Amino acid sequence: MDYIRIYVKAVRRICLGLLAALFLPLAAQAGGDQVVVLYNLRVPASKVVAEHYAAARHVPARQIFGFALTTNEIITRADFTDFLQKPLVEHLTASGLWKFGPVDIPGTTNLPAHTEERVVESKIRYAVLCYGVPLKIAPSPIPPPPGTNPPNEKPLKPELQHDEAAVDSELAWLPLIKLPIPLTGPLPNRLYGCTNAALLSPLNGILLVARLDGPTPEIANALVDKALAAETNGLWGRAYFDLRNVQTNDAYYLGDLWLQQGALICHQRGFDVEMDTNAATFPESYPMSHIAIYAGWYDGDVSGPFKQPEVEFMPGAFAYHLHSFSAETIRSPGNRWCGPLLARGATCTMGCVYEPYLQFTPNIGLFLEGFCNGYTFGEAAWFSQIAVSWQTTVIGDPLYQPFNKGPMAFHDYLVRTGNPLVEWSVEQLVNLDLARGAPRVQLEQFLENLPATARSAVLTEKLANIHDSLGKPSSAIDAWQTALKLHPSPHPPHPGGKITGPRTQGRCDCQRPATVDRSPQLPGQNRNRKRTQNPPTAHRHDHQLHHS
Predict the structure, then answer these.
(1) Count of CB atoms within 10 A of residue 131's CB?
(2) What range defines the domain where residue 96 resides?
(3) 8 A C-beta contact, residue 349 and residue 320
(4) Residue 388 falls inside a structural domain
(5) Is position 241 within any domain?
(6) Contact of 120 with 113, CB cutoff 8 Å
(7) Beta pairing class for 238-242 and 272-276
(8) What is the number of structural domains in the chain?
(9) How remote is the C-alpha of 121 from its chain's centroid?
(10) Phi, psi (degrees; rounded to nearest 5) at 393
(11) How far apart are CA 303 and CA 70, in angstroms?
(12) Distance (Å, rounded) from C-alpha 404 to C-alpha 56?
């Protein structure tokens, strides 16, 4: 329960931090010169994915490395060490990308001063593993000894005393390879929750690892293309959160708490948020459209609307389902979660290759705090994990940074270029005003007077929702019925790509609401949060995460 108390205290900090960040200078764009790309010499498609990514992100040729690895998703510990981990360090040092040297560590109450061999110079921060690089490390037949814990740390619980791990997570601590790091159990991530993204660096003991992967090499290849499209045009659509309605005195409440925090962050970022608080997951019949962000739990295999052959993921969409074995395989388009989400059009995701235990899964509220504040996908993924050398795989372009520009910058660009996605930008600006306490009547009048509303299903539906919130059911019903008759709003065809839908002709009349200002409203003050959605309960088998 200590974890829950910690995260409850963090909610207010998260919300205030996000609102303030919307009006601060944004992080610098990460570039391909900060990346090394790894591929499997024994999988031809692996090199194709590597070369495509390197060209798209302008990764220097000397930072692309091939390794002769097994063609299976699983690799033995010995092969991982001998054919990937150690050779990668040799490549990085020989090419001048890393330099190791002695670092003086000051003494503490429990530890004397000492010197460690660490990375002291680094020209890269990210590693991209391409389709064909193994996913996970098999447990050793005879697990290695747990190692010596520092005096101020408790010994590992028996259920954590094993050494299987995700390849991504095992490579994340590569900068510490010259230290006597124990291979048994999770290794604490000292940069968990770090508020300065620049500190997420090999100089501080972490390599930001992600993979371009999925059921097919074509799906893996497209991940960077969709990421770049969203960086150019914005990440638009709706945010969906699927809670389990766990009681606050239950150890599993932590998972619901993370999702609640994520939902609040997306609301403050201007997304329409739909939250299911039933114990069951979203039913298959639920009309989940225009998905920008999805996070939920807890089914073993893909379920609900995601079982449909086509899902409306927007370009750049992040989708995550918390389950102990959500990434047990990523080669299947129908089993577990990561593979199916990618096959249906998601741009990035995370998952667990073996049992992680709840508190060692990504804190999705913290992830979305960083992601929506301009962190790259790689930065947000690793700053939201309390441990490395454990079970999480990170799938997607680690440089992906859809919130590197502010709302107004995206809006002005879409207006200037006549992009049909501008209707989503207008809706976001209206939502931001609502979140800051702007009068609903004023925003109702703005949408009624905006010529684009009459042609836009997105804006007409938003107008209907405002009518409804103002106690005007007849006006709301009329607007909802009108929205159903309009041309479908812009969304990508399966599995993501070119935008379809009507393009604004001539001068774009999707102007910004007059009420948009730069005075953030504190969370909880006049906040308009989208109503919780309660679809009919769908039966499911309740797999439980074990709490360590």
Answers:
(1) 27
(2) 27-105+114-148+156-216+354-395
(3) yes
(4) yes
(5) no
(6) no
(7) parallel
(8) 1
(9) 28
(10) -105, 145
(11) 31
(12) 18
